[in-house]
Amino acid sequence: MSPELERLALRCLLAGFEGVAVPDWLRERLENGLGGVVLFARNVASREQVAALGAELRLARADLVIAIDEEGGDVTRLEVHRGSSYPGNLALGQVDDPDLTRSVAAALGGDLAAAGVTLDLAPVADVNSDPRNPVIGVRSFGDRADRVAEHVAAFVTGLQSAGVAACAKHFPGHGATAVDSHRALPVVPDDAASLGTALAPFRAAIAAGVRAIMTAHVVLPAYDSRPATLSPRILGDLLRAELGFRGAVITDGIDMAAIASTVGMEHGSVAALAAGADAICIGGGPADVDVVDRLARAIAAAVEDGSLAEARLREAAGRLQGIALPAATPIMSRRSPIRSGSGSGTESGSAIGLEAARRAVRAEGTCRLGPRAVVVELRPEPGVAAGEPGWSPGRVIAERDRSAIHRLERGPEVDIPGLLELAAGRPLALVVKDLHRHAWARGAVEALLSARADAVVIEMGVPAWRPAAAGYLAAFGASRVSAVAVSEHLLPALTESPHPSSDQLAGADTGTLLRLMHAEERAGVEAVGGVLPEVGRAVEAIAARLRRGGRLHYFGAGSSGRLAALDALECPATFGVDPDAVVAHVARDEAAEDDRALGAHDAAGVEPGDAVIAISASGRTAYALGGLERARDHGACTVALTCAPGSPLGQSAEIAIEVQTGSELIAGSTRLKAGTVQKVVLSMVSTGVFTRLGHVYRGRMVDLVAGNEKLRRRAAGIVADLTGAQASRVGVALRQAGGNPKLAILMLRTGLSPEAASTRLREAEGDLAVALGEA
């Protein structure tokens, strides 16, 4: 068999593999011409690891295609372990704002480009005309062809603006079937009206300049008895001639049952290339050298026996290699001044993804939960395309309130009496997905609602069946940001809720008012005790950064920002640190408070060795979120300080200090109890940090800056107290030490000259106890 033919055959394959590093067999096949790889969840541990993996792959061959199924929503590979930062297509279709869709796709493309991906097997361009569809569903922009077409075009434009090629799928449409081609071969209606509906989004994708189109393993009887993937009439006459597509045609996974269990992978690969496909995608099943070699040999043999023209094989190989886009030219979203798709994409993605998810949520009835809720998640078996999620929407919702309980039920048997007993006296929420397709879940919901009509039902799939619940929320997809958006509806920030005693204030005398306020302030301070482990982690992490020369940054707005500024201003005088050692970034006005991009802009100077504390009572302040996210992307240590457990700010930080203070006597006035709590925690953190760094010795401020007479007397008292020296000797020592109590103490305790004492302090990194040999 000709080595040249095998090399050409390899160039038309997109292979899968196991693990998070490049196996030897794959590196060898890449050197021999393998067209590219497709990354799945099995290849992902983190964004950084994927970027390193991409770099390792390109060392083998710089021009290979690195593809991934990253649709957002339910189908995510980069964020399979935590849930996607972007809502899926159905949520975007529900919002029906093409500019928002374009911005989401651009941010997603930025993430992929940063990870080294060159081809995203997205968007799904199928019209979900059959709600029973087990494989499309929330992956579609909806059931209206015109809406789907508009959003497909927007997604293609946004994604490709980030320098990542888009691949519209599944041609000529997989939405009008109730069969999953991963498991069997579907037959879809192909009358003129149905086919016109299905083709409209693909026409829009082609007009938008889509670089690739993926075939569907479905049969259209009026066109061909063969699956579309293997049909010259569909790929040649329809897609190439009629629709005018000139880009690369990629098959859906050739290992899917619709092909592998009918004609077989080898024959299917040859037939697909002969029909007009340019690349054979080896899906999430086989992931070893054997399948790659088998397919390459079968393709090469077909050329030798004349069943596949060599010219067709060469044309296919060339099209796949020409799929790459030039460097990104990011677009700007009209909805946000953040540059979409720039950098890692995380900053804009976090913002635009959550915005889109919030706008998609539909609420009906009473959709508020009180504290201590029981969140029951009725999870069906996952589809093959999405795979088993490494996270839980129900848990994300429950984590907003630490007193909530999350219970996962997989069915078909559900312990109804046990769940009702667990939820007795507690609010109840039922998290479901595609309730219309799962009889066991519908039965469980109806049984639970018959006993608990006050329960809230949360649909994370296609909202095609609405149970008779007191409250109903539809998220239109199961991304992490969609779960966060739902949780905000169910459990609004307690700081914004009316207090049980608020109604008493109108007729209360001054004494009663003050007693109520005192009780609330005391309860807030007591609540800090519950987060001392998190405060301790923050102190140690920040001290480690500052010890290596980093700075501490605060980001906040309103009362939180002013408290941060106060703490930052007090640090130089109290601990003798440089004025820029602790910096407060405060939103300048109410408009700036809502400006996430401004927070990110103000964090541009944060270095990887710095630490950031973002402060927001509600945990939602856009300015603080923007600053924290940008700092996190720069590699800084990030801490969130909020009074709202499970808030977006807490979820975005490495360390979340979340003090559950509850509602305020004056609803929303976080200068009261929440303000007190934030002041206490900030004081604990800064004092703890600078104590750990040696700026406090035996409980004395040995580095205070004596800028007035009161402080000069205090400095002299500290030195006298810790040395036992007479006032005259203390005065001389302080003058020689330039007013620094720490240096004066070391001189008096050791008899060292000012120069020698300064040297010893530097060697001890400013720690007096170390300089004195006590530590």
Task: Note the topology.
Elements: H1 3-11, E1 13-15, H2 24-31, E2 36-39, H3 47-60, E3 65-68, H4 89-95, H5 98-114, E4 119-120, H6 145-161, E5 165-171, H7 192-207, E6 212-215, H8 232-242, E7 248-250, H9 257-260, H10 265-275, E8 280-281, H11 289-304, H12 310-321, H13 346-360, E9 362-365, E10 374-378, H14 393-398, E11 405-409, H15 416-422, E12 428-432, H16 439-451, E13 456-459, E14 471-474, H17 480-490, H18 510-528, H19 532-547, E15 552-556, H20 558-575, E16 582-586, H21 590-593, H22 596-602, E17 611-615, H23 622-633, E18 637-642, H24 648-652, E19 655-658, H25 673-692, H26 709-723, H27 727-736, H28 741-750, H29 754-763, H30 768-771
Parallel strand pairs: 1-2, 1-8, 2-3, 3-4, 4-5, 5-6, 6-7, 10-11, 10-12, 12-13, 13-14, 15-16, 15-17, 17-18, 18-19
Antiparallel strand pairs: 9-14
Helix pairs in contact: 1-11, 1-12, 4-13, 5-6, 5-13, 6-7, 10-11, 13-17, 13-23, 18-25, 19-25, 20-25, 22-23, 26-27, 26-28, 27-28, 28-29
